[in-house]
Design goal:
The structure is a single chain. The chain has one domain: TIM Barrel (Alpha-Beta Barrel), CATH 3.20.20.70. Helix content is about 35%, strand content about 15%. It contains ten helices and twelve strands. The strands form three sheets. It has a seven-stranded mixed beta sheet with strand order 2-3-6-7-8-9-10. Strand 9, helix 7 and strand 10 form a beta-alpha-beta unit. The radius of gyration is 19 Å and the shape is globular.
Length: about 290
Amino acid sequence: MIREIQANVLLAPIKQPDPFFGLKYNMNIYRGCQHQCIYCDSRSECYQIENFCDVLVKVNAIERLRDELPRKRVKGTIGTGSMSDPYTPVERECRLTGRALEVIAEYQFPVHIITKSDLVVRDSEVLREINRVLAVVSFSLTTTDDDLARIVEPGAPSPSRRLQAIADLRAQGIHAGITMMPLLPFLTDSEDNLTRIIQQAHDHGAKYILPSFGMTLRDRQRAYYYDRLDQHFPGLRAQYEQRFGERYSAPANNVAHLQEVFYELCAAHGIKTEILLYSPPTTALQPRLL
């Protein structure tokens, strides 16, 4: 179900720019996500999304953004994609993310988009404009196996489409790479899968890979994930329960070895393991029309 809601605030400030994603402000235009990845952390109780199958559309997002951006005295990277994919399929019709990027370009703010969708390539023209300051697009990837992805990420574009989107954006000079997260214990945490991700990243011109060697297992997230494991991977739930119990996080198998292999292969392929960060000035900004 798709429902329209009104946003009171669109840009949530982050007290200190985080060193991993480089964000100063967080923006979520949608709540809930049509990609319906079986492992999604946003199902967790702390995010207060009653039914993650519903997509809540903040229909006043552009008005809120136009009101809030001119009042930001610190220029910092706007991140989107932490709670819901900004290119969830409804974006194709609503085009709220695309219109928000146009506003961001007017005010010359940098942006970091995290997505599983090649729909972002639609907005490459405005991303090139933002990239005069800084535009970064990170594609979430836990496997390069399209068949496995259809099970664990049933509503998302295939990994092969995401990799092609990286190549398309890189050809236009846009900073694009991979967030290799999560790595699912017993499913995608093998050295073979890790090696394929890095090789495909290199083949498609990815500038960087941001890694996470495991996954979270929080309350409602855990219950949903285990239910889907029972459906698609009988017997695997028992391995999770035996190894992780009620713990908040589930590290990958052989995590130390995987980390060693990861950093060695990235170095060999010339792939960075961090993104280019933006250092904001302290002066107020004036809009620049496209």
